[in-house]
Amino acid sequence: MHRRSWSAELCGSSRAGESRAGGSAVPGLVVNKIAPGFLASVLNGFPDGLVIVSGSSGKSTTTKMLVAALRAHGVAVFTNQSTANISQGLTSALLEEVSLSGRIHGDMAVLEMDEGHGALISATLNPRVVALTNVMVDQIDRFHDSDMVVAMLARIANRASGTVVINADDASLTGLAERLDGPAVIARYGVTAEVLAENPRGLGYSLTASERMPAAGGVLLTSVSGRSASVLLEGASFDLELPARGVHYAVDALTAIAAARAALGDRFDAATACSAVSTIPPVFGRGEIVTVRGHRVEFVLVQNPASFQLNVDSLEPGLDQVLVAIGSDVRDPSYFWPVDTSALGRVLIASGSKAHDIALQLAYDGVIVDRIEPDLGRALDDFLALPDPVHGIKTIIFSADSMRRTRAHLGLASNREG
To answer: What is the pLDDT of residue 105?
Structure first.
């Protein structure tokens, strides 16, 4: 490694040790400034190559499932455990593991990458497999339309030397695949018409791609019920257990299995992959159930209209105690107005910096809102002081900003390992 990178690595490792408990990206920011080639040098050095997972949503859960599937096949995998998916976060994750020789123990690297930051550093990376989840108008303050997201994902996908794994039911991704000019082959996964008919809201999929899937030799989702699902793979059906309810988690599992198949080639065993995927716990707020102050609480993270709709639709009907907290990350509250929240029926507290906005939306959908409390800490304290609900468990639906504030207020882990 170049002398400059050595100095950067040593400096960064020291800073990483100081801030590791908080999951800080500061060490990565320092190293990226003084040794901009460090990140690419390490990531491109794994014997079995680099796998990148990107897309609008589902990246964290897909990455965790994919890592489990690869490790079940005996592959030593390095991954960004904290799911820090921007360049400085990735560098900080590397600094925690890199040796003085500039290498990390492992056969393969599997990294979740933010679309924007992944596109910025893609020219320096040589991934063997790129797995793309979907394209949505997500984080509208950063990505103003889906064409911008497609262009960024295309830059990442064009760097793949082996396989680009795409959601065949996402029209934006199928269009992207047709325009790629890199050397990679395309592997597809999708859902059946029956699954789509049972889950008509939120996914935004077409039927045409999934109907062609069996002939294309892809991985196909054939059924979803709560936390259970079935997939068709290599002519056989396999059952899966999901980390949380909902067809979107089943699609994440599908992405992971298809990516593992592409990464492993002839070493891939479908039963081993499906069994491993079935063992992972929820990822940091995504259907996670925790015990706080003597109560079991389910955390439901909503990051865009699609995830909001799918999560509301998958909740157990008639929940007694629901708190909805929308924070400053949702800069334009009208972003969530396409979501039909009527299935919630009743919300005890609407909170967060956008408490009044989400309460108005809920009211228009016919949801009874007992109380509006912008002070999230006070709302959480009062919510958790209530006795256990008669039906279901306490449920907190929050945006990313409110999720972070909730975890900090309740003294829960601040990293994203979930």
So the answer is: 74
φ and ψ of 64, to 5 deg:
-65, -40
Asked if residue 417 is part of any domain, the answer here is no
In angstroms, the first-to-last Cα distance of the chain is 34
In a domain, 19, yes or no: yes
Query: Residue 372 belongs to what domain range?
Result: 286-410
Position 215 scores a pLDDT of: 43
Q: Which pLDDT score, from 0 to 100, does residue 17 have?
A: 46
For residues 90 and 112, give the distance between their C-alpha atoms in angstroms, rounded to a whole number.
9
Where is the domain boundary, 213, 245, 277? 277
| Count of CB atoms situated within 10 Å of the CB of 410 | 16
pLDDT band at 3 (very low <50, low <70, confident <90, very high): very low
Note whether residue 14 is domain-resident: yes
Q: Is the pTM of this model over 0.85?
A: no
b/e per residue, 364-380, with b = 16+ CB within 10 A? ebebebeebbeebeebb
| DSSP H helices in 171-207 | 171-179, 193-198
With a cut of 60, say whether residue 1 has pLDDT above it: no
The residue with tokens 């209530």 is 386
160, 128 Cβ separation under 8 angstroms:
yes
- Per-residue confidence at 106, pLDDT binned at 50, 70, 90? confident
Q: Are residues 252 and 113 in the same domain?
A: yes
Sequence-ordered strand ranges (E) for 67-159: 77-79, 108-112, 129-132
Phi, psi of 293 (to 5 degrees): 50, 40
Give the pLDDT band of residue 89 (cuts 50, 70, 90): low
The torsion angles phi and psi of 353, rounded to 5 degrees, stand at -65, -20
Three-class SS state of 172: helix
Hunting for tokens 């984080």 — which residue is that?
A: 139
Give residue 332's pLDDT band: very low, low, confident or very high (50, 70, 90). Answer: confident
Number of independent structural domains in the chain: 2
- In terms of domains, do 213 and 359 share one? no
